[in-house]
Amino acid sequence: MLEVLPKIAKLQASYALGKPLALPMNLTISVSYRCNSRCKTCNVWQRPNDDFTIEEYDKTFASVGRAAYWFTFSGGEPTLRKDLPEMVESAYRHCRPGIINIPTNGIQDKIIPARIERVLQAAPTSDVIVNLSLDGIGEKHDSVRGVKGNFERAMRTYAGLKALKGRYKNFTLGVHTVISNFNVDEFENIYQFVHNEMKPDSFISEIAEERVELDTVGMGITPPIQKYQPVIERLQEDIRKAEFNGVSRITQAFRDRYYDIVKRTLVEQRQIIPCLAGVASAQIAPNGDVWTCCIRAESVGNLREHNYDFAATWRTTKADELRRSIKAGECYCPLANASYTNMLCHTPTLASVALEVCNVTALSMFSSPPNHGKSAKLHALPVINATDERQMAKDHKEEVEAAV
Amino acid sequence: MTECPQCDTMNDDDAKNCQGCRVNLYWAFQHYEELAALRKANNLAPKPTSAPFLVETSKKIDDGPAVNWLRNTIKKYGFKGAGKKVSTTAE
After folding, report:
1. Does residue B48 belong to the interface with chain A, where contact is any CB pair within 8 Å?
2. Among partner residues B39, B58, B90, which is closest to A142 by beta-carbon distance?
């Protein structure tokens, strides 16, 4: 993770100058608009298909090189593409990302686990995070996602994915909930179910928002702050109470701050910290259009017209115009993907996370932690990742051996 | 002409988004009524206020490459019955 630090300095300089001195470290690849969900919070499936081929992705990733650290393969439903493992393999070969993130609706329960296993094999040294969408329990989930039987299939997919965890150390299995007006009142049920039954490595939530990419502008799906605040503060409280080690502690500190940003964005309707979309993060649409972000979804150029050279597409006049507009604060949003990169590039946030992590680590070193036992720790959601679980198992074994 | 269920603006039959409030008309015929009731229960106005930059950017969709495809789809399926014909909607 430390390898991102030199990139951050270059990206901060790029933002200050309004000219890209480096390529983005966070790339979202929307691999297709095809989707077998019909969510009440999304119309992306209505977009036409003109998807990149694997050869086109290979040329693009070759041009990106080692610049990008964090890849998200999204959609539509990314697992509908049979060649998803080949895409990941190509990204891994050319770019060696530290993190690869893939959301899924879990509908194709007979196909997804095997396809994800091939993804894991294709990127053996990257942290592969697969997030299963869960917007309700049982029929409520089916209703929000618009597909009868979705919940049952998603649970079967989840079981299939969980079975992979023992075999792949680079695999993190998460659950992802979009909180909208359609389900904000049900969130406690979702939380309890995830907490008590699913026990994923991570549980993350994102607020439903209006995005040009998803054609959700004018829909009013975003819950009001009065409804959202108690829900998200419950998650934050658990983050602060839970015991985390190493990288998980850092991740959780960022997550806590991200939820603060979301609340403030809802109320203040402005950029809470500078947005580096168009500098540190970017999105590639299925047809090769390059966007600064999916909220505005405005093309800065098409890779097909620039011989699949990302840098050339990234340095167009249109890209400069958009960077200027974003820097001037002409837009704002709580988009999670861009927000995490923004926080990494925001020195005060980075410093406060570093300080918090150092304090908590020092405290835990000099005080005797209460013995909650492994079971209690495992239940301390929202997030315990695979590394923590392995460490806890190791600690437990050592305790038993010492007692004997 | 088709009347937007959200803002009552009259739109061409092959419009994808309402020319008044920008809402996706296909979605509006499927889900607006339910969402308006939820918004009312949450003491919100039935019609949301979208950020001006989003409305402006969304307008560019009308001139984008997807327009013809979408118009043909809407012509083929119509608005009100579209969910039953092309989606797997539970209700």
Report:
1. yes
2. B90
- Residue in A32, A101, A124, A22 with CA at minimum distance from that of residue A68: A22
Q: What is the ipTM of this complex?
A: 0.83
Nearest CA in chain A to B59: A212
Q: Profile chain A (404 residues) by mean pLDDT over runs of 10 residues.
A: 84 94 97 94 88 97 96 96 97 97 97 98 97 97 94 97 95 96 95 94 94 94 94 90 78 93 96 97 96 95 97 96 97 95 95 87 66 39 38 52 50
pTM: 0.87
- Per-residue DSSP letters for A125-148? TSEEEEEEE--SSTHHHHHHHT-T
From A269, which residue of chain B is nearest by alpha-carbon distance? B51
Q: Which of B9, A273, B11 is nearest to B1 (CA)?
A: B11
A193 Cβ contact partners less than 8 Å away, ≥ 6 residues apart: A134, A137
Contact A139 B90 (CB under 8 A): yes
Contact status of A367 with chain B (Cβ, < 8 Å): no
How many A×B Cβ pairs under 8 Å? 112
